[in-house]
Amino acid sequence: MKLLVINPNISADVTALIDAEARRSAGTDTELIVRTAGHGVEYIETRFEALVAAGAVAEIIAEHCGGDPAADHIDGVVVAAFGDPGMPALKELTDVPVIGITEAALCAAALQGQRFSIIAISDRITAWYRDCVEHFGLGSRLASIRSINQSLNGIGTVQQDFKETLLALSRQAVAEDGADVVILAGAPLAGLARELEGQIPVPVVDGISAGIRMTEAVVALQSGFHRQGAFAPPPVKNRRGLSENLDAALTAIQAAAGGSVTANAVPSGK
Q1: Which of 19, 108, 133, 181 has its C-alpha lying 20 to 30 A from 144's C-alpha?
Q2: pLDDT digits (tens, 9 = 90+) for 92-128
Q3: Model pTM above 0.70
Q4: How far is CA 55 from the centre of its chain?
Q5: Burial class of residue 258 (count of CB atoms within 10 Å of its CB; 0-12, 13-18, 19+)
Q6: How far is C-alpha 235 from the geometric centre of its chain's CA atoms?
Q7: Residue 264 confidence (pLDDT)
Q8: H helix or E strand, kind and range, residue 33
Q9: Based on the structure, what is the number of domains in the chain?
């Protein structure tokens, strides 16, 4: 099995954290290709930043899962930023499973307890996270979102700089908010759940680990892909200005779903 793991942020330090936790979590027969967004911001806190990141993620998916026969044969994609920028729209771009670490972490939490809390790296990010939980229909099971309310020294050192704060927030979520499960949200916290093992009195979910393991499971199900319905590929229509990779990926997924490029379609860049 080969998984494409995408950091929607531009931070190489965060990609290193993602890569390390993904490799610790993946099965022995799983090969990982880890990539960093080509444009955007160092870490995503707002809906607009997520919008920008979605385009960067789409380009990477198109490059590796698109219409080029020489491209890597990818079995599944992991969008490795909490909040799942571009999801669920990115599921329409390829015929392999595309899983966000938020949906994976929420599913893992829902399987282990009735109510869960999310521990986040900033106050600003909490509104977007709450939107995501509501989108998945799990708002009634959200006990709380607790967050660091101090300025970050650097996105790659959040764990080291705020380990005790994050531990305290997690314990408060259990003791004061009634959380049955704690989710350590965001790629900058990848691997922290392993370090805190046994120090929080409920199950603790790492988004990157959940994303890898859930994607492996969905790939193994071999359920097929969406040819019709809400997640079917976008309809064939005129388009212009797209990158060559993105244009090819759309053409390929539309053909796979039974469509074809119309005679008057305007190729990208023309």
Answers
A1: 19
A2: 999 999 999 999 999 999 999 999 999 999 999 999 9
A3: yes
A4: 14
A5: exposed
A6: 25
A7: 36
A8: strand 31-36
A9: 2
